[in-house]
Design goal:
Elements (H helix, E strand, L loop, with lengths): L32 H5 L6 H42 L6 E6 L13 E3 L6 E8 L7 E8 L3 E10 L5 E7 L6 E10 L5 E11 L1
Parallel strand pairs: 1-3, 2-8
Antiparallel strand pairs: 3-6, 4-5, 4-7, 7-8
Length: 200
């Protein structure tokens, strides 16, 4: 045997189980998991407010679209009215011959004219060979509007036609009634012909 010392062995103590006291009795408080997990944007009040705001925004959008459509229609109508009520220079001339009714107003229009665009200088011929007056008056009324113009002391040409010229921009769409009257030797006017003209 050698003279050295043997290492000392450590002896382990056996493990002892320690019994701990239990927490005091009673029903444990368990928080609602949904309440704990819900964020502020998930709260019912926020969701309801968001739905109301969306509905209001949708209503405002629809109202704005309706108002915009109405304004667009109104602008188109005003533009058409301005075009039809503003006297503009005529770019070309056109002859229009209309036979008057010698008895009274016709049941149907005597002539139908498409409103020219751009404006034209309309040369209107009204044959009056059946009448024997030397001069005539032409009274033009627009139905549902009123009197448009009166031409006095108009003489027939060599063909027996009563002739006058007018810028088409002076006629807006509608129905016009021309009343032709002859002058007697006393200067009184007597009905001599009637014309219904429709401008579309």
């Amino acid at each position: 045997m050698s003279g050295g010392r043997e290492p000392r062995r450590r002896v382990r103590r056996p493990a002892v189980q320690v019994e701990l006291d239990l927490p005091p009795g009673g029903t444990p408080v368990v928080e609602d998991a949904r309440a704990c997990d819900a964020r502020w944007w998930q709260q019912p009040a926020f969701v309801a407010g968001l739905a109301i705001a969306t509905a209001v925004l949708l209503a405002l959008t629809l109202g704005a679209r309706v108002a915009s459509h109405r304004d667009r229609e109104r602008a188109t109508e005003l533009e058409a009215r301005l075009k039809s009520e503003t006297l503009r220079p005529a770019t070309q001339a056109r002859a229009l011959r209309i036979d008057p009714n010698p008895a009274s107003w016709s049941a149907a229009p005597d002539a139908t004219l498409r409103w020219p665009e751009p404006p034209e200088l309309l040369e209107i011929y009204l044959p009056l060979r059946y009448a024997d007056y030397t001069s005539y008056a032409i009274v033009v009324d627009k139905v549902d509007h009123g009197r448009v113009m009166v031409l006095e002391r108009v003489a027939r040409d060599s063909n027996g036609d009563l002739r006058f010229s007018i810028n088409s921009s002076a006629f807006g769409p509608g129905e016009y009634r021309l009343r032709l009257q002859g002058y007697t030797w006393r200067g009184q006017r007597v009905d001599a012909g009637w014309v219904r003209l429709v401008v579309e």
